[in-house]
Write a structure and sequence with these properties.
500 residues; 2 domains; Neurolysin, domain 3; homodimer; globular; three-stranded mixed beta sheet; mainly alpha; 3 strands
């Protein structure tokens, strides 16, 4: 391979500068959600905007374009890591430079305003007050999509921002395969007689005991607690604030310890991915996560495949029983059943694993129609409610439990939702592949030894960073393209087990 | 007054950018001391250096010099706020631009290295390993002092960085007046028969109870808890991270509740000052603290004048008694005596109010000699121990309890120490003036109504930001120049009360 020009080192150095700024912006955001004094939110918004502005100028500076061209002209071999980095850098540079700064700022202002209107609108279930803001954000999203470029389907250009490499019609085809089977599985689950519910475990589970339990669980799963933290916030999240600074949050419900348990297992999946990205590549795409869908596959794998399994509950039951006196009279199987209960519900973030993707399919269908203009904003609530009834068999009582429940659209985040379901399907497909690749897979899990599984994920997913597009990464890790089959067969088996 | 040119608005805007960056850098530092995962310190140092570098480039950019010259040419009236802002901006700009970037970086590297060597040296009381680093930092400090400029006394140029307007010989003259009286007062205090000590109150004071008490105390004193926080760190500090984000830290000792009590009263003094700076002037010198000495005067006033008074202990005694069962059998006077105990001790940060300034006088004398070259680094431990014996009557057992105890020199912070004593003297002089200005001063304090005192400080000190040099500010607030008399007479009276 011909030597890469010096410009390549300049791209790496610029990438490192951007990673540092990204981590600093990340800390501003993390602190805002966890600790910031209430009166300081306005000032914090200014700080965040300043760091974002500095980063944007550095990322889109003309010299970056020159460095890229110089490196591309040197034509590194197509399968080299350098070629992958150049492709990702080029992708990001082109996207960032295609949008004029005033449009970025207009979008920031519009979504800032929309977000605060949405907060109030959701409280009062008042769609009418939010509608003009949604209209505005949709028109801005269409303008940006046109600038990014697409072949007739603007949603493609938006999706590309969250899940590079995927086209709208591919997602739609995948989801069409998924939908009827998911409906069948969930309807079967609803009819399980004396269906288990988390309410069966109602009791008092002091927050302090939950925290103690989680602090035991985290290192056992493989999370490096000297390179991260667990804190509290209203909406749980995970922030990678540097190679040795992965911060997760959770919330606690003293009547239901599974809220923090599954919240933390989910965020730990994200956190293990962040901790597994190669530190030496900080600032290059090889040190970044592959996509939102791949990130979500990690969280869902640890939350649902590991954490909701027979082996998890068998293995951890003595610890649970010792930690929570109010579990007296129960056994591991009660807990396993409660953790896997399938129930019709209105709110996506509270949905069980089986019905969860139905909530996503609904959002994907509606947002593609909103972007194409085939669905008018004023018709959104009726369309939502009709599709909800069809998919989940419930009549939506008001818009706060319907089309106003999520923050994403109020931030202009059109194209984000499908990554959740892509993550779910990917998580199950990876799980199946790990099962195939690793000898004594179940035996290790029953012994609470998660090292082989984590090592496998490190090698197959984490170590590659963003070298491969999500689809290629899945193909390399599992030997086949992403397919709903693994996930559906796992869910079918689970419902069968629950019925037994 | 002739209209100021448009450049004045540009200076304001640049100042605001710098204030935002300063707050972001401040958050990086605050988080480092309170929450940062242990493995992430190296990365955090890179983040902090990046933000400092961006700020330094913005502050020293040639256009700032042009804006300043354009505004100065317009000659705003000498007593206008604008003239004061221009003078401060010019001062800062000239200082920052006189040091070449490579010297700034060399100093950063040298102090970074020295700090880590110092940590180990202090642990092992090994002055020899630290000596070459101290040598290096002193030579860098002299080089910088020469670049900043001085008339024969390089320490002047260093002092100017912490306490603008003060000259070494003025500080020396003040301290010479102070020293014999302080020695006399402390020696008298040491001979009080059956001298009260905090050990008399030994008991178990659960951290949770201390926290609860402090959360009651803070708003009562006037700290806006919706615009700040109280957290935990090894070394207590206060960071102003924005107009509505003042963060204080403390540490807890379950055998001695006065550790957190006086730590928090001290930091609250700093915090009230930060919260009292005019928000509309954020980014101009009018929104900044006047000097380190003035800042310290606020912390010392609340810690020592308010918190160690008869009225404080009388007024808060019922709350203390209710909060801490282990105070049973004691009364407010026991607590007041224990809080004011005067004892010989080696460590500055643990010293009582009477002996504290002797620790500072010693450091000031030695560091001026080190900078002038009249004291060699190798002779520092002997010089320290000799002077310590003279001032405090104790033989220093080893250098970790002697010249290795403080972090300041390991960071190259020569010229910082005198600001502590200037703060102590100023705090007492302000206290006396407030007493004179405010009707029923004591009656309000006994009723725990601190609003008149805080309002007085807001009006006399906080509201002016950095408009006046510290000396002028004190003159305006108290009607006379800074003088040790107020402080000494207060201490003399206190020792008399303790003897009674």
């Amino acid at each position: 391979m011909p030597a890469l020009p010096e410009a390549y080192q300049k791209l790496r150095a610029r990438g490192r500068e951007l990673a540092l700024l990204g981590a600093t912006g990340g800390l501003l955001g993390w602190d805002q959600e966890t600790l910031l004094p209430p009166k300081s939110h306005g000032f914090r918004a200014e700080q965040s905007a300043q760091i974002a502005g500095i980063a944007h100028r550095l990322a889109t500076a003309p010299e970056v374009g020159s460095w890229l061209s110089a490196c591309e002209a040197a034509q590194p071999p197509a399968d080299s890591p350098e070629a992958a980095c150049l492709a990702r850098w080029r992708h990001d540079y082109n996207r960032a430079t295609k949008i004029p700064t005033d449009l970025v700022e207009e979008n920031e202002r519009a979504s800032g305003l929309a977000r605060s209107v949405w907060v109030e609108a959701r409280k009062r279930s008042d769609f009418a007050s939010f509608a003009p803001h949604l209209e505005k954000l949709l028109s801005l999203a269409r303008r940006m999509a046109d600038l990014w470029g697409h072949s007739g389907q603007p949603y493609d250009a938006l999706l590309e921002g969250y899940e590079p490499g995927w086209k709208t019609k591919e997602v739609a085809a995948l989801f069409e395969k998924l939908q009827p089977r998911l409906v069948t599985i969930s309807e079967k689950a609803f009819t399980i007689p004396a269906h288990p519910s988390r309410k069966n475990l109602s009791g008092h589970y002091p927050r302090h005991d939950q925290e103690k339990f989680l602090q035991t669980l985290l290192p056992k799963i493989g999370f490096d607690t000297a390179a991260g933290r667990l804190d509290t916030s209203t909406h749980p999240f995970c922030s990678g604030l540097g190679p040795y600074d992965t911060r997760m949050t959770t919330r606690y419900d003293e009547t239901d310890f599974m809220v923090s348990l599954y919240g933390v297992l989910h965020e730990t999946g994200h956190g293990l991915y962040d901790q597994g990205l190669p530190e030496a590549e900080l600032g290059t795409p090889l040190g970044q996560a592959a996509s939102l869908g791949i990130h979500e596959s990690q969280s869902r794998l640890w939350e649902n495949r590991v954490g909701r399994s027979h082996s998890f509950w068998k293995a951890w039951w003595p610890d649970f029983a010792r930690t929570f006196p109010d579990l007296t009279g129960h056994n591991w199987e009660h807990c396993w059943r409660a953790a896997n209960a399938v129930e019709r519900s209105f709110i996506r973030v509270e949905a069980d694993e089986v019905t969860y993707d139905l909530h996503i399919l609904l959002r994907f269908q509606l947002e593609t129609l909103l972007i194409s203009g085939d669905l008018k904003v004023r018709d959104l609530p009726a369309a939502w409610n009709e599709l909800f009834q069809k998919l989940l068999g419930l009549k939506v009582p008001d818009d706060s439990k319907g089309c106003l429940q999520d923050i994403h659209w109020s931030l202009g985040g059109f194209g984000y939702f499908p990554t959740y379901t892509l993550g779910n399907l990917t998580g199950s497909q990876l799980w199946q592949a790990a099962h195939r690749d690793l000898p004594d897979f179940e035996a290790f899990l029953v012994c609470r030894d998660y090292r082989p599984l984590l090592a496998w994920l490190r090698q197959k997913i984490h170590a590659h960073g963003r070298r491969y597009l999500a689809g290629d990464l899945i193909q390399r890790a599992t030997g086949k393209p992403l397919d709903p089959e693994a996930h559906l067969s796992i869910l079918e088996q689970k419902v069968k087990d629950l019925s037994g």
